[in-house]
Amino acid sequence: MNKHRVALTVNDKAVSMLVEPRQSLADALRGELGLMGTHLGCEHGVCGACTIVVDGDAVRGCLMLAVQAEGAEVTTVEGASPAVGLSEIQAALREFHGLQCGFCTPGMVMVLHHLFTENPSPSEDEIREALSGQLCRCTGYQGIMNAAKAVSARHGRLNDQPTQTPPDTTGI
Ligand code: FES
Ligand code: FES
Q1: Domain ranges in the chain?
Q2: How high is the pLDDT of residue 58?
Q3: 41 lines ligand 1 (CB under 6 A)
Q4: 104 Cβ closer than 6 Å to some ligand 2 atom
């Protein structure tokens, strides 16, 4: 099959890749650029594991063809993470047990990264709306919500603090 060269910016770096016409952007980011942080789950737009930011929008990387990304500005979870340590969102997900197997986590991080870029202190409803397209089979979502609410609260305006489980003092 004829391959096409696509030039784009990924995580602030100009790159080019040779892709098949049928290849998804998520697949090309992983396969051609070695950016394995973008996960592929359902590959048909349902789970959100492949979420990346393209030209300022959070998009499903599995539903966009790599050839459509010519000239685009793309941010993957690698670009939303510091070179060392964790981002504020990642640290909060760890702190509030917002992950277990971690498969959905890159998509969660990217959707929250996009949300907090647009709105540093979203309401609980806005957080729920942003996360409504992301599937997690492990956590039951409460830890993810608590993490996002904690980040929003730290940014200043959300007074509804996340629910913390009180320490078990029954045995004392
Ligand atoms: S892999 Fe893209 S939405 Fe599931
Ligand atoms: S942590 Fe396992 S799918 Fe979300």
Answers
A1: 4-75, 88-154
A2: 98
A3: yes
A4: yes
Q: Using an 8 Å Cβ cutoff, are 87 and 81 in contact?
A: yes
Atom of ligand 1 nearest to the CA of 63: 2
Q: What is the mean pLDDT of the chain?
A: 93
Cβ contacts of residue 73 below 8 Å, gap of 6+? Answer: 8, 9, 54, 55, 56
Which residue from 131, 129, 91, 92 is spatially nearest to 111, judged by alpha carbons?
Answer: 131
Reported as a single tens digit per residue, the pLDDT across 52-86 is 999 999 999 999 999 999 999 999 999 999 999 99
Quick check: 2 pLDDT over 50?
yes
Q: Which CATH number fits domain 88-154: 2.60.120.20, 2.60.40.10, 1.10.150.120, 1.20.1250.20?
A: 1.10.150.120
49 CB near ligand 1 (under 6 Å): yes
Look at the block and give the residue holding tokens 């959300």.
Answer: 158
Which atom of ligand 2 is the closest one to the Cα of 99? 1
Domain spanning 4-75 has what CATH number?
Answer: 3.10.20.30
